[in-house]
């Protein structure tokens, strides 16, 4: 009798779920700098979200022939010649997305993703975006700039430098980082660096706002910061999101400041204090519609433990998965008895044997 009752207790929630479930929209994952879709962390992250939400997940990356991104061989500056020499030592085609995420201008990356989502038949009725670090800026550019693209319903951002960052993301000591260091010596807002180092497009030095607004090629446009260049369409498109989930990592040492994940940042002209998002001019004057979204209850400010992108499985389930399900469209789904018995047996076995899932970080504490 007890075993029958136990089985019934396990079956009831499954039967209830079987009567009606929500149709899930597809989603895309946009990885961070120096990463690639084939890497274990990103691949596992995408797979788990797809399984847990019962939605179709796709990790997208940007690639281009390296020949198109090489500096001019007519450059005379010694440091530019060093960059040319180092770049020329690599294969002409880097298909993983790792290299391009560093050296391809962000607008070009966004244009590639825009074209990809327009070509994907399964996204035609709408889709969700999950952004990782720098990938969030690409995702927002797709929302704001992509003419004729399918509608984006929910945007889930993990560790995104939305208001900029006062330091280039950590790199390391490899050959890529030698090239990055060489580029940085050319001045971050120079035309050359802006054209050959992706993070320069969102590096925002609060004590050098004049050069930032004048010469930074990407973030000022994305955030509608240029007074004479504000575009109402960008605001209209961004504020049309159903939900904007902004996840900040409490021990983030990559983004400076970490509050940029919530659109918080330093005031113009100083590195102190860090302004909460609601106290920034971007929010108060509603340049991109963040205030509009927030006042409508469609912005979720989430803080999780861990370093940059070090999200746990538990936090993934709690803060990401609910927004990968289209709760506005329900359909009836009847499971077969064999499916129910199989799932119930699996659940009972795990409970009996104590086979609980590890809640360690899926992506790890990354520097991208």
From TrEMBL:
Record keywords, A-Z: Hydrolase, Signal
Signal peptide coordinates: 1-24
Keyword Hydrolase: yes
Superkingdom, natural source: Eukaryota
UniProt entry tagged with the keyword Nucleotide-binding: no
Any one GO molecular function term: thiolester hydrolase activity
Pfam families hit by this protein: Palm_thioest
InterPro entries listed in its UniProt record: AB_hydrolase_fold (IPR029058)
PANTHER family on file: OS03G0101100 PROTEIN, PALMITOYL-PROTEIN THIOESTERASE/DOLICHYLDIPHOSPHATASE 1
Protein's recorded name: Palmitoyl-protein thioesterase 1
Organism: Paspalum notatum var. saurae
